[in-house]
Amino acid sequence: MTVTRPSGDDLVEMLAALANPLRLRIVATLAGGRDYVSHLAREIGISRPLLHMHLQRLEAAGLVVGTLELSDDGKAMKYFEVADFDLHLTATSLAEAAATLTRSDPAKGSGEKEKN
Amino acid sequence: MTVTRPSGDDLVEMLAALANPLRLRIVATLAGGRDYVSHLAREIGISRPLLHMHLQRLEAAGLVVGTLELSDDGKAMKYFEVADFDLHLTATSLAEAAATLTRSDPAKGSGEKEKN
DNA sequence: TGCACGTGTCAGAAAACGCTTACACATGAA
DNA sequence: TTCATGTGTAAGCGTTTTCTGACACGTGCA
């Protein structure tokens, strides 16, 4: 498996997505096999809207992938599975990522168009 | 360097500490050498109280270490340096960590004393 | 005595986050 | 038609996070 090397902003988003016990559990459960939203919600023991929100965050970070499929009885099911990521976090690897950060850099002033 | 393998709760705390552009930049700067709070605040371009708060979070997560020292002219200086960590994040490694989570486990009910 | 430098901490506001409840729509089966 | 299943989404609310500003204390030096 190749090591993922995201940009600074992307890394922050991925870390923020993983820095939550519920979302960590969601990824862990999906690591055991793909599942659809309603069933996964029952499996973990949380409400479906809440799971929906967390899955959105995980998918936005590129950690899980969702695909809308049609079951045999014609129902629309959204299946999720974990993406193929491999993050390596070290002081030096973080320094490399931080060098590519575009937002919140008071030192560089407002180089970019950052609607902070 | 040995790979750090924290518990689920500790991992969440470490990830939360890193999931912030400013704190990522702080770690990156400290990776280039130890520094004391006031100087580091000027270096990064943020206020000292704000940096103080971020350093507290990073230290609580075990990512940086602070030591209070006395300079030659008798001033109390708090020097910070990065800790020696090496996190490896994979779907399976996250699953292992998630298995040790103690908080927010609706499936297990409230096994622990969790003042949620 | 006053200024410059270091430390720490507190109060308050704006924004983001986590969660519940309720609503909308679709399908197949009783 | 009604129920059970699946989907999505919006409103509301309490908590946490993030940040500024002001205060406290200490030392050395002009």
Automatic annotation (TrEMBL), chains A, B:
GO terms for molecular function: DNA binding; DNA-binding transcription factor activity. SMART domains: HTH_ARSR (SM00418). Residues 13-85 form the HTH arsR-type domain. Pfam families: HTH_20. InterPro entries: ArsR-like_HTH, HTH_ArsR_DNA-bd_dom, HTH_MetalResp_TranReg, WH-like_DNA-bd_sf, WH_DNA-bd_sf. SUPFAM superfamilies: Winged helix' DNA-binding domain (SSF46785). Keywords: DNA-binding, Transcription, Transcription regulation. PANTHER family: ARSENICAL RESISTANCE OPERON REPRESSOR, TRANSCRIPTIONAL REGULATOR, ARSR FAMILY. This is Transcriptional regulator, ArsR family. It comes from Blastococcus mobilis. The lineage of its organism: Bacteria, Bacillati, Actinomycetota, Actinomycetes, Geodermatophilales.
